[in-house]
Design goal:
alpha+beta, four-stranded antiparallel beta sheet, 19 strands
Length: 376
């Protein structure tokens, strides 16, 4: 009995102890400080590859532009130093400077200028390097044509070389031996005035005012004749090159300036002016009513000591006339000697006929490019 009671008391004590020892469904909060995470953070990993190829974004100039134009090529990325890349090339070669006005721009500034009509090719070579190492995969070319030079500068040069009846007056000085300055002046002429010398007839003054291009054309023909160039009266690259060379070496017009006037007023006359002085004044014959001498002004384009002129008369018969001291100025019309019993009235089929002595003297002055005006 006693043993049974002890066992029961032991069981009760065990149950009480179990209840006091934490039979709750929620564990007690811990008062200890949590430990820092022991797993290391992942580092960002950047995957790199070869740099992108360098590309041309824009290029200029193109088409027809002034010969002193600046060349600009813009790229897709900043460029490395030019010293580490193949050098750009320009044809025809020209003095100037390459620069990088911005990190992505390559620029060529010419010292002088290309002459009118010159076709310019700028080559940016394959392999040009960008700052990040990228390279240009293919060569790039910029092509353009130098525009015609300034008509004003053309007149200035012709006047300075004495191919015009005017002289050029200016405070601005373009040194004749400074090639680059002379080239730049082709497109940006200095300010100044062209002034007539004394002794020239009013008709030539009026011609300059109203038809200056014709006067210049005659002067260009005269220049071409003296310099062995094709006489077309057009200022192309060869003419400009020869003009600048003549200016540099002071090669002046060795024939002087001549202007001739054939007047159909009765009595008809031919008057020849040279360097502002009358050197020939003679009676003349111009074309008859059925074959008049065309009014207007024309440059002499052919000179012959003598020839046999052949053609058809107004009545249908044919002629073959031996003539001398011939200077053609308009198609088949020429100043020449033709034997006649009289002079001073319409007798020819369009030519300006004069006596032998006058024709001989006039022919020495009627050089290529000389203007002949036929007036009523």
């Amino acid at each position: 009995m006693v043993l049974t009671l002890v066992a029961v008391v032991g069981l009760i004590a065990a149950a009480v102890a179990a209840t006091a020892g934490g039979a709750s469904s929620h564990p007690a909060a811990s008062t200890s400080t949590p430990r820092a995470a022991t797993t290391p953070a992942r580092r960002a990993h950047r995957v790199t590859g070869p740099p992108a190829a360098l590309r041309v974004v824009s290029r200029a100039p193109h088409g027809t532009v002034a010969g002193d134009a600046v060349v600009r090529v813009r790229f897709s990325a900043p460029l490395a130093a030019l010293s580490g890349s193949p050098a750009p090339r320009i044809q025809p070669s020209a003095a100037g400077r390459w620069s990088e006005p911005t990190p992505t721009t390559l620029q060529f500034t010419p010292t002088g200028a290309f002459l009118p009509g010159t076709v310019v090719t700028v080559t940016i070579p394959k392999g040009l390097r960008a700052a990040d190492g990228g390279r240009l995969r293919h060569a790039v070319r910029v092509r353009y044509t130098a525009a015609g030079g300034s008509p004003q500068r053309l007149s200035q040069l012709l006047a300075q070389l004495r191919y015009l009846p005017l002289h050029f007056v200016s405070r601005a000085r373009v040194p004749s031996a400074d090639t680059a300055a002379q080239q730049r002046a082709v497109y940006a002429p200095p300010k100044g005035q062209l002034r007539f010398g004394g002794g020239w007839p009013a008709g030539l003054h009026q011609l300059w005012v109203h038809n200056q291009s014709l006067v210049v054309q005659g002067a260009v023909r005269a220049f071409e004749s003296q310099h062995g160039l094709t006489m077309d009266g057009a200022a192309g690259p060869q003419v400009w090159r020869a003009l600048l060379a003549a200016r540099a070496h002071n090669q002046f017009n060795n024939a002087g300036y001549t202007y001739a006037v054939a007047s159909e007023a009765s009595p008809e006359t031919l008057t020849v002016y040279h360097n502002g002085h009358v050197v020939v004044r003679t009676p003349a014959n111009t074309g008859v009513a059925g074959a008049p001498t065309a009014l207007g002004t024309y440059p002499v384009y052919e000179r012959l000591r003598s020839q046999t002129m052949k053609g058809t008369n107004l009545d249908g018969s044919h002629y073959a006339d031996f003539v001398q001291w011939v200077a053609y100025f308009n198609g088949g019309d020429a100043v020449h000697y033709m034997p006649r019993s009289s002079y001073g009235s319409p007798q020819s089929l369009g030519c300006v006929e004069v006596p032998y002595a006058a024709a001989q003297r006039a022919w020495g002055y009627l050089t290529y490019g000389t203007l002949v005006s036929v007036v009523g």
